[in-house]
Amino acid sequence: xxxxxxxxxxxxxxxxxxxxxxxxxxxxxxxxxxxxxxxxxxxxxxxxxxxxxxxxxxxxxxxxxxxxxxxxxxxxxxxxxxxxxxxxxxxxxxxxxxxxxxxxxxxxxxxxxxxxxxxxxxxxxxxxxxxxxxxxxxxxxxxxxxxxxxxxxxxxxxxxxxxxxxxxxxxxxxxxxxxxxxxxxxxxxxxxxxxxxxxxxxxxxxxxxxxxxxxxxxxxxxxxxxxxxxxxxxxxxxxxxxxxxxxxxxxxxxxxxxxxxxxxxxxxxxxxxxx
Length: 275
Ligand SMILES: Cc1cc2nc3c(=O)[nH]c(=O)nc-3n(C[C@H](O)[C@H](O)[C@H](O)COP(=O)(O)OP(=O)(O)OC[C@H]3O[C@@H](n4cnc5c(N)ncnc54)[C@H](O)[C@@H]3O)c2cc1C
Ligand code: FES
Hints:
Blueprint: E1 2-11, E2 14-20, H1 22-27, E3 33-37, E4 45-48, E5 51-53, E6 58-64, H2 68-74, E7 81-82, E8 84-89, E9 101-106, H3 110-122, E10 128-133, H4 142-148, E11 151-156, E12 163-164, H5 167-177, E13 182-186, H6 189-202, E14 205-209, E15 225-228, E16 231-234, H7 235-238, E17 241-243, H8 249-256, H9 260-265
Parallel strand pairs: 9-10, 9-13, 10-11, 11-12, 13-14
Antiparallel strand pairs: 1-2, 1-7, 2-6, 3-4, 3-8, 5-6, 14-17, 15-16
Helix pairs in contact: 5-6
Bound molecules: flavin-adenine dinucleotide and FE2/S2 (inorganic) cluster (FES).
């Protein structure tokens, strides 16, 4: 059992949870993730380690409510417990070989770029950060990003905050100026694909964090398979971060929506509820 020490709402249907998990915190690095179950009958759901405190023994996750299990998690109050919290899983990401890094976060992707931003800042190599969302209400961690960034740009689709447009519009302006040697982009797959297509034109190394459907998280079920550079890779053990220029995006997006029709008609075997 792991205790939810703190819980706060950052945006509509997005909560930040600080979880008591000393063993996970002790070994955590930026780029890794955990898998949790809300209760003993719950499914295993993966979340990025957004922050960790090795001394306090805590791990922070940001969770967007999109379906059954994330809503169930949202119903657990601060001070309550979840059944288990396994990790750290996946490979850490090390961007320290690069000199001029741009971190691009779309929506809940902020949870993945924040630990990188904090890590690079702590090494005295702060990154330029671009955060994008549909509107102002969905922008998260603005103060935290501002404190860790060399420069922070905000883009909203509707222009309600920052630049009106997509993160790719802001990124293109920076790439045109030159000097960038690495871009890390995390968000919905169409956004990561668009960033990778853009940076390919400039020959700039691009790292993305893949969020395929995961089941076991240990490389055994094959659920999280992605093709990278023509080779089969498993996001849970070989990733989740990969070279965006080498991903077979069409296959990855098809696999993510493979069960969409069944999900519409699905009757949950755990609860009997229909979605
Ligand atoms: C390595 C990894 C890290 C992740 N980190 C985070 C994070 O930090 N914060 C966060 O909010 N979410 C994160 N996710 C996604 C999260 O795991 C899913 O949103 C969650 O499992 C959905 O469970 P559910 O039962 O609530 O929704 P479901 O009822 O299972 O699904 C609801 C809808 O969401 C879609 N969906 C389900 N899983 C995913 C997925 N992996 N990617 C995209 N769409 C999905 C379904 O197709 C469906 O349309 C991560 C996923 C992976 C693989
Ligand atoms: S989740 Fe099963 S192999 Fe990655």
